[in-house]
Design brief:
The chain has 257 residues and is mainly alpha-helical. The chain has one domain (46-255): Vanadium-containing Chloroperoxidase, domain 1. It is built from 11 helices and no strands. It has helices at residues 11-30, 33-40, 44-47, 49-57, 61-66, 76-100, 129-145, 148-167, 173-196, 203-222, 232-255. Helix 8 (148-167) runs antiparallel to helix 9. The chain is globular.
Length: 257
């Protein structure tokens, strides 16, 4: 919590943005977007549908919020940074989706040419929302902790979850690359702004976060539909663990001296 936010000159900030921007250009110029999608979409033949459904669950916005619950007491800076970063990426994400309005694979390809797990989505492809969400979460943690191993793990895990969006049949490779760029940039901006607005770490704000995250966790457990039935056991496991762990942190925040 004492470390300052990295500057844009830090290679860990700008290099992932540059790499995935170049990848988007290469995929676009070569016209390999569809071929790459069809190739990676066959992953289910190796992993099975359940594994991919669980993996893609980590990019769900509500699940990502619930995963913050255990951070309540010890890392309020992470929660505050994620909240700011989420506002940034949500504005940009939904603006891009509606302005570009690019079709998803199911809006272009015949159903029998690729594999779909979950809902059949056809519109608002770019960028991938699930990828943006998980990369934002992992990016905030990486930019806050500032250790090479965390940077590497954060990017890899975010990319793997993004890859699952191709495997479940709802996004193109370019959508995933766009999600990585938006998520990583939003995470950095969130951490930078959070460091300059430290009132977000205060106890009254923490208590508000406690209530919000408790409500999110209960919603995830009892009402929320992930649209991935195969991932329901994982949803319950995540919800229960975060409810117990988060409730302990909730108690520490509210009743500390």
């Amino acid at each position: 919590m004492k470390k300052c936010a990295p500057s844009f000159k830090d290679p860990w900030v700008w290099s992932p943005l540059l790499i995935f921007a170049v990848l988007i250009c290469i995929i676009h110029l070569t016209g390999f977007n569809t071929q790459l999608f069809l190739f990676f979409n066959k992953t289910h033949t190796i992993t099975g549908d359940r594994f991919l459904a669980i993996l893609t669950l980590f990019g769900d916005g509500l699940v990502a919020a619930v995963l913050l619950f255990p951070f309540l007491k010890k890392r309020p800076d992470i929660i505050w940074s994620v909240l700011i970063a989420s506002v940034i990426y949500m504005i940009i994400l939904h603006s891009l989706k509606r302005i570009l309005d690019l079709p998803r694979p199911a809006g272009v390809l015949e159903n029998d040419t690729f594999h779909i797990i979950g809902r059949r989505l056809t519109k608002h492809a770019f960028p991938s929302g699930h990828t943006t969400t998980i990369v934002t979460l992992m990016g905030v943690i990486a930019f806050t902790v500032r250790k090479n191993v965390i940077y590497i793990f954060g990017l890899l895990f975010g990319l793997i979850v993004g890859f699952s969006r191709i495997a479940v049949g709802v996004h193109w490779p370019m959508d995933v690359c766009g999600g990585v760029i938006l998520g990583w940039l939003s995470a950095w901006l969130g951490v930078v702004i959070a460091k300059k607005t430290k009132w977000g770490y205060s106890r009254p704000v923490q208590i508000i976060f406690c209530i919000i995250l408790l409500v999110c966790t209960i919603d995830l457990l009892f009402w929320y539909n992930t649209h991935y039935p195969l991932a329901e056991p994982a949803k319950w496991a995540i919800g229960l663990v975060c409810l117990v762990w988060g409730s302990i942190e909730f108690y520490k925040v509210v009743f500390k001296k």
